[in-house]
Design a protein that fits this description.
The complex is a heterodimer of chains A (388) and B (327).
Chain A (H helix, E strand, L loop, with lengths): L1 H16 L7 E8 L6 H18 L2 E2 L2 E9 L4 H13 L5 E4 L3 H14 L3 E3 L14 E3 L4 H14 L5 E6 L2 H16 L7 E4 L7 H9 L4 E5 L5 H10 L8 E5 L5 H7 L7 E4 L8 H13 L7 H20 L5 H8 L3 E4 L2 E5 L6 E13 L2 E13 L2 H4 L2
Parallel strand pairs in A: 1-3, 1-4, 4-5, 5-6, 7-8, 7-9, 9-10, 10-11
Antiparallel strand pairs in A: 2-3, 11-14, 12-13, 13-14, 14-15
Helix pairs in contact in A: 2-11, 3-4, 5-6, 8-9, 11-12
Chain B lengths: L1 H8 L3 H16 L4 H24 L7 H16 L5 H24 L3 H21 L1 H4 L24 H23 L1 H11 L1 H6 L4 H27 L9 H14 L5 H20 L4 H14 L2 H20 L5
Classes of the chains: A alpha/beta (388), B mainly alpha (327).
Amino acid sequence: MLRRSFVLGSVLAALMSGGAVAQDVVKIGLILPMTGPFASTGRQIEAAVKLYMAQHGTTAGGKKIELIVKDDTGVADVTRRLAQELVVNDKVTFLAGFGLTPTALATAPIATQAKVPQIVMAAGTSVITERSPFIVRTSFTLPQNTLPIADWAVRNGLKKVVTLVSDFGPGLDAEKTFTEVFTKGGGTVPEKLRVPLRNPDFAPFLQRAADAKPDALFVFVPSGAGSAVMKQFAERGLDKAGITLIGPGDVTDDDILNDMGDVALGTITSMHYSAAHNSPENKTYVAAFRKATNGMRPNFMSVGGWDGMHLIYQALAKTGGNTDGTALVNAMKGMQWMSPRGPISIDPETRDIVQNVYVRKVERVDGELYNVEFATFEAVRDPGKEKK
Amino acid sequence: MAADWVRRIAVNHREWVFWIVAIALPLLFPGKLLLINEIAILALFALSLDLLLGYAGIISLGHAAFFGVGAYAAGLLAKHGLAEPLVGLLLSAAAAAVLGFLTSFLVLRGSDLTRLMVTMGIGLMLLELANRFDTITGGADGLQGVVMAPLLGLFAFDLAGRTACAYSMAILLVLFLLARRLVRSPFGLSLRAVKANRLRAVSVGVPADTRLVTIYTIAAAYAGAAGALLAQTTQFVSLDVLDFHRSADVLLVLVLGGSGYLYGGLIGAAIFKVMQDWLAAQTPQYWQFWIGLLLVVIVLAGRERVAVAIRRRWTALTRRFAGEPTP
């Protein structure tokens, strides 16, 4: 008898706790790698998101915005559970963050099933936005960032380039795009090297690259792994052998660039954001970001977070506070605004970002290393999708 | 005969309380179903290691190998058409058992240290294989497109995790009862003899090698089942299932809960996961520091003592409920 009433009581408790959610609060579940090898991504995005909320207030479309930050350590099944919990328990209106491709892909079915917009603020594999009609991206795609540097390599008379990429989605995207564009332009790619994503040791790969005696080495590694590449690039004497380091800008990530030292000087990359981007919006952004974070320099991940928040605020304003997932995603389609990185928009068909991509060279400015932009490719769509 | 079997498998009153509490948990915390699901899976995984470590004295740092094989087997089966969870679970456990059987001969040789290295090596090899054959496993991007059929054709896997939680708990209970039956059988007793003194056990006629191969295979099947549960309930598999930290975590869980009485893995899993979940919610950036500190404190400042204290309290409590005289 005792047991029965106990069970009954707990069932009642279960029913009650599942009910009533305040109508005027909109919750954003921000899932990021806050610990582990990709913690810098999480730190940058979290800082940018909080800065956006500090500057723009915590109301949008008449709703109070509430942020819930979760650490997935960059492990996809954890991301998936956290997303599920955020949807079921916290009844979030938006899922946001996603530091790595696998974590974004693992969450896609949940976004679809729960009809919750999933704002990808970091992960850069082309296919992500195709995995759920509720995914909208504010970061970048690897093909998008690779195309300009491949084009630059062709135009500047490079003939032989070895590629070295991290062996997962974005790396393969980068390798494919570069090889296609570069060989079409008459160049050759004698070696395509792939380094494991976890615990990489670049030395043997760099040695093989050096042995091929290329004009340049094309490198893609995820944000944070760039310093190791740079260090071993110099240790193996590739810089002395006259090999230029090129690639999408992940390797000269603003977060760690200044600590790389002179070996990074002269590296040519293409990327959608540089902290040295010359615009009034960016100057304000960098100053505010540094002030809010004790002097941390914002990197390309941070603008993904910043613009993701902007997208969420604008979508809520446009729907007048309607939190229906489909309405919100529709509101986001085609939206355009001026970001610290330059003019950007959301492609209404692919829900992917359209933005300027800049070709940059690492130079010393006011005693610090920066990616200084010297050429612009305007309004680049994701080339990964245009072919279809 | 059948009645005899039932009697041997039947649980005593103390265990009744444990399982009633366990089954009440999902009802008490309906918002934590997914976490409870993960606890049940980790508990099953730890139970499998307990069979090895607690009963056969085989220490392993590569137990994730079997967990991962089970997970990938379940994921791949579902992806390629066999979406029925129970059949998938059985086949995945069988796949892990085959691997366990094959590798058990390596583990028979050498001392504890050798075993640590051999098991770890096997785990690392499998991880690299899964990474290399990314056309099959999806590599570092993870295995996508795993869709499970409803359980028993009735219960679809829902977002809130009701089916997942009930499924994992049920499998844990069934496999636990089997394990309990196993370690109390003559087979289990002879295993303990081998653990205590292998030479002596052999000299009284216990075929030590056969016993160890058998238990290693069974433990592998258990770990495979745990992996399969994870793959089926999250409908996703990533390289992480084979990662070294899984092997280390499960050993830690067993150390936390205590090995050699089957419940250790279950209790350890609950403590470990709840602590992790709570700390990560408190401080997303620095929770690993706190969990490290807590683990050191728990292990140093007397896990034994804590366990003994709880057991004593527990005994007193259950006796009062059952109205039994103290022995």
